[in-house]
Task: inverse folding
């Protein structure tokens, strides 16, 4: 049987094209750019667009991890301090171990985030606690650790050259490194979700965990891995953010929780799990970044920004279609 | 006898929270350099009542198997509004209070309306409306400041008959005037039914939509009362995102410690009050035992995590593994 006889619906690229939320999300991105262009021509310049993509890369990496957790029907509220943890541990290790420290700084930062994710996963999978409350507690614990860490040991807080290079360097055709990293992370996520058995299991657990369990899926392992990936992604973004702003500081991850969840949900991923694709998350991340940028360029005060931000999320979600009514 | 045993079993979470609070409060008072004077009790209850009110607010949506991530923002919004509206003569002050409470209830109603008629998930809805409410709070009060009618404020944060902290009386009054009638009303019982099993409730003719709307509206109202009390304590308003999110997070923790199930249909707002008292007493204990301030956030985090992990005891009772996935 030749390839061309496969039914159309098995080709993921074509399935994406008919997703309603995806169409709306991308239409909104274009509308926003055009609307911005009316305000100032700068909005369509390649330099502005590249810069927006560079900024959105950080959110994109965090959202990749957040999406894995949302797909299995859970939520990771420990993202803010995991981002900060990744940044602080990476810079601290660079300070403690000198030359070798510079080499291992980035892996250590990511590993610390993965450890937080592992604990989250263990709590949710084996203790069967609601992820919302357990990751919230975890966030508080990590915050406490970081206050102790910075206050008690006065570690190095400025980023290494490598971190700075990864976050702001543009060696290849002027394309920002951060964007390239997001492309790699994104490609890996798409591969994981669409081309591996693990990806299938993620969707299965998100749809109905009991059914997945009865079908022989080790659902606890799936849950733990998703949280580990989320923690690692958040910490990696923290490492890059430290490179971007040249230092790690308290609460640097706080502004990323709501945008990350909003980006995933605006991308059409079901907050209850089981449905969603990564292309939508990309659209959601770009949408959120553009929205923030346009509001900033228009010099909208913080109050107006928050209001518009919340209203846009609500209106878009209502436009995606209301949830199914639960009373068959 | 059987009835008593049934009642104890039914209120296990509440009784555990009350017991924990009493033990911790005794340790706190016996180690306090001054001991239990009216002033110490008033300060402690003024702080604790704020979280207790927000935790009560959080309980109502949780009982319907929902969640309100905007309670902290409504709390802050009421605080900022009160610092503008509750000024002038005592009469004007009370008019301002009514207005603030109305706005709080309206904020809650909007949450409920979007969830019921818009059919969006409570988490994401209240996350987004929370941003809007915070924006409005910031618009009302861009920088910290403002004022509040001092007679009302002094009364609400002082003592009745020189002994009883007024804040506790206010809290008790709210339990008697708002919670108990609600708990025994048709819509209150409907909220429990919806939280247990929404489909079964609907099939039995329970007014599902009105129950949810009322739960979120009352949550907004209670959070606004909390915001008012905050204003009476600080004599000013501040649109602070960290304070808002701290209160939202702690309200969820207080609800869990107070024995209310996050899966809905089980628990009470009175439990949440004691859950809030437990959380506040932990902070006070750290203070009297003179713990290094650097260690305090970590200690609080560990206690919070340990407290919510108590919910894992449920796993031990489950006989069929499949029940785990419910």
Result:
């Amino acid at each position: 049987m030749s390839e061309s006889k496969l039914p159309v619906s098995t080709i993921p690229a074509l399935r994406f094209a008919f997703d309603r939320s995806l169409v709306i999300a991308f239409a909104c991105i274009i509308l926003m750019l055009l609307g911005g262009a009316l305000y100032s021509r700068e909005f369509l310049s390649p330099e502005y667009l590249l810069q927006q993509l560079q900024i959105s890369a950080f959110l994109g990496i965090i959202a990749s991890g957040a999406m894995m957790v949302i797909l299995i029907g859970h939520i990771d509220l420990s993202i803010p301090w995991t981002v900060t943890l990744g940044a602080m541990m990476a810079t601290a290790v660079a300070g403690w171990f000198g030359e070798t420290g510079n080499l291992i700084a980035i892996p250590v930062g990511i590993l610390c985030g993965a450890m937080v994710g592992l604990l989250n996963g263990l709590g949710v999978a084996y203790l069967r606690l609601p992820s919302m409350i357990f990751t919230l507690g975890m966030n508080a614990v990590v915050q406490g650790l970081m206050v102790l860490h910075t206050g008690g040991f006065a570690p190095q807080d400025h980023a290494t050259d490598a971190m700075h290079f990864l976050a702001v360097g543009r060696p290849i055709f002027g394309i920002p490194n951060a964007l390239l990293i997001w492309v790699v992370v994104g490609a890996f996520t798409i591969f994981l979700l669409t081309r591996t058995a693990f990806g299938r299991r993620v969707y299965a657990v998100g749809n109905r965990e009991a059914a997945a369990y009865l079908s022989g899926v080790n659902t606890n392992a799936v849950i733990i891995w998703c949280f580990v990936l989320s923690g690692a992604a958040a910490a990696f973004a923290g490492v890059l953010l430290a490179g971007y702003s040249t230092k790690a500081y308290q609460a640097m991850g706080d502004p990323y929780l709501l945008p990350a969840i909003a980006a995933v949900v605006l991308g059409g991923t079901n907050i209850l799990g089981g449905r969603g694709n990564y292309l939508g998350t990309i659209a959601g991340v770009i949408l959120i970044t553009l929205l923030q940028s346009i509001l900033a360029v228009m010099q909208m005060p913080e109050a107006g920004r928050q209001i518009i931000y919340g209203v846009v999320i609500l209106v878009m979600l209502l436009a995606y279609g209301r949830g199914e009514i639960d009373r068959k | 006898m059987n009835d008593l045993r049934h009642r104890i079993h039914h209120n296990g979470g509440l009784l555990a929270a009350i017991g924990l609070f009493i033990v911790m409060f005794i340790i706190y008072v016996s180690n306090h350099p001054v001991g239990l004077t009216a002033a110490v009790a008033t300060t402690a209850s003024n702080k604790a009542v704020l979280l207790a009110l927000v935790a009560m607010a959080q309980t109502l949506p949780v009982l319907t198997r929902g969640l309100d991530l905007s309670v902290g923002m409504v709390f802050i919004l009421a605080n900022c509004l009160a610092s503008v509206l509750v000024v002038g003569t005592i009469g004007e002050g009370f008019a301002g209070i009514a207005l603030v409470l109305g706005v709080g209830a309206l904020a809650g109603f909007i949450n409920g309306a979007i969830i019921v008629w818009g059919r969006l998930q409570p988490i994401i809805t209240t996350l987004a409306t929370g941003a809007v409410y915070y924006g409005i709070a910031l618009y009302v009060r861009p920088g910290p400041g403002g004022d509040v009618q001092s007679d009302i404020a002094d009364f609400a944060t002082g003592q009745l008959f020189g002994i009883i902290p007024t804040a506790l009386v206010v809290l008790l009054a709210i339990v008697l005037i708002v919670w108990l009638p609600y708990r025994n009303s048709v819509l209150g019982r409907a909220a429990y039914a919806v939280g247990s099993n929404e489909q079964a409730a609907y099939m039995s003719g329970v007014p599902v939509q009105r129950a949810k709307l009322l739960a979120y509206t009352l949550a907004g109202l209670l959070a606004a009362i909390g915001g008012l009390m905050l204003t009476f304590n600080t004599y000013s308003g501040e649109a602070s995102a960290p304070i808002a999110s701290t209160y939202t997070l702690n309200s969820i923790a207080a609800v869990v410690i107070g024995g209310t199930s996050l899966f809905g249909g089980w628990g009470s707002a009175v439990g949440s009050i004691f859950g809030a008292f437990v959380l506040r007493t932990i902070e006070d204990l750290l203070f009297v035992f003179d713990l290094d301030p650097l260690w305090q956030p970590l200690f609080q985090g560990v206690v919070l995590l340990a407290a919510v992990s108590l919910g894992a005891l449920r796993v031990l009772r489950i006989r069929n593994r499949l029940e785990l996935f419910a």
Remarks:
- Chain B has a mean pLDDT of 87.
- Chain B touches chain A through 56 residues (CB under 8 Å).
- The first strand of chain B starts at residue 159 and ends at 160.
- The two ends of chain B are 33 Å apart (CA to CA).
